[in-house]
Amino acid sequence: MSTLDAVQAALAAEHAAVYGYGVVGGRIGEAREAEVMAAYAAHRARRDALARTARDLGGEPAVSAAAYALPFPVPDAAAALRLAAVLEDRVGCVYSDLVRAAGGPLRKEAAGALREAAVRAVRWRGSGVAFPGLAERTGSRAR
Hints:
Layout: H1 3-27, H2 33-56, H3 77-101, H4 104-125, H5 135-138
Helix pairs in contact: 1-2, 1-3, 3-4
């Protein structure tokens, strides 16, 4: 996978995460609203940075879809918590790919984003996985 391809995949995952956190925020309840807003802001910032990186690498940044299919129905706060963890797992997987594909400062940024996603996933899920970002180890799907 080229660096640009990995950046585009991470950008697409960030678009999906921003959308997904809109759903999470509508169902999570007031007790964890601040966490949702912080995650939403973090994903927006990462998305915007990745769009700049894609341009810097000579690519046209991947655009957001009008809507995204959710992996399961999200009728309540419990489902919203599960969705938030899935979003972070998916983002972590693509950042893992970017860590492998990139070098220098971009690799460091990708590793930081992977770490942040893993920490948020633990907060939402209440437990961690041994190898965050590796779909074959977590049972998650990268996309």
